[in-house]
Amino acid sequence: MTVHDPLIAAASRTKSAIPDDAAMLRAAADLTRELSTARPAIYWPDMLASALVGYAALAGAILTGDAALMLAFGLAAMLALYRAASFIHELTHIRKGALPGFRLGWNLIVGIPLMIPSFMYEEVHTQHHARTRYGTANDPEYLPLALMKPWSLPLFILVAALAPLGLILRFAVLTPLSLMVPPLRRRVVAEFSALSINPAYRRRAPEGDFARQWMWQEAGACLFALALVGSIFAFGWKPLLTYMAVHSGMTVINQLRTLVAHLWENEGEAMTVTAQYLDSVNVPPPSPFAAIWAPVGLRYHALHHLLPSVPYHALGEAHKRLVATLASDSPYHKGNYPGMWPLVGKIARSTMGKR
After folding, report:
1. Confidence (pTM)
2. Which pLDDT band holds residue 267 (cuts at 50, 70, 90)?
3. What average pLDDT does range 17-32 have in this prediction?
4. Taking a C-beta distance cutoff of 8 angstroms, is the pair 201, 194 a contact?
5. What residue stretches are annotated with the Fatty acid desaturase domain (predicted)?
6. Percentage of the chain modeled with pLDDT above 90
7. Residue 1 included in any domain
8. Which helix (H) or strand (E) holds 244?
């Protein structure tokens, strides 16, 4: 994308030229050294309870004949399954051996039934954290949304609303077809196998142990997608449509969260860690709803870019320590925002000048 407005282009260049703040980076490392251990006693109950509540509420929405109850159950299912699904982000950062069996358990309980197996995000999200990739054309999770046309934001959300249909097509149709047509398979791997927002991103074919993980996860998602479509003949349309509505709502919330995870003001230049932090967003307490729309530590997204190895359950404590220690003029304080809607408004206003 090319920015023609000289003021916007200058702002983008200014942000990409921000030097690293040594005091902030040193404090982030020193104050959180003992917080980097993922605790199975938190991960497993949180993920399992979220999935249990989500599937129970989904079943309630399918089985009830009352419209109000169906809506209530559907909302509960959407929020609980959204929380359960958000653990995919943690999977990409957990050190090998830190949580034995968690990747397998999450995929069987959440990833495959929601058609978002972890191979769709693993080895993709870590590129978003690469020092030389963040905010560039090679970043799978970055678009300069604040510098794009006004219609780009509604389109960004609409694409998310259609995600369940796209995932069914990906796994029920493209997976079996691509196994019989090698050129199609190469395209499916490169273009339709990543949870990314950058349409120019192309994925490399997996290798080694990851290729084996990819294979069984994709097979499981394929079988589930086929069973989902086949359920029409056994149970009618209601279970499938209810599942898709809940899944769509879950994906739209996540897309809104993604929309405010960054300021999206970089035009493609490589950025320092401090610049990446300032282009990212924390929504810390006392914001009352951030834990719902940005669960599993995602409310501390800017802090996560400083400390990607700190598990979600320790980010709140890390934030408290940094706020209490760093001077008031530290860049750290500039990455904290009060809520979602002021951020949506900020990005929307920025796009209004790109008619």
Report:
1. 0.93
2. confident
3. 93
4. yes
5. 72-333
6. 84
7. no
8. helix 238-259
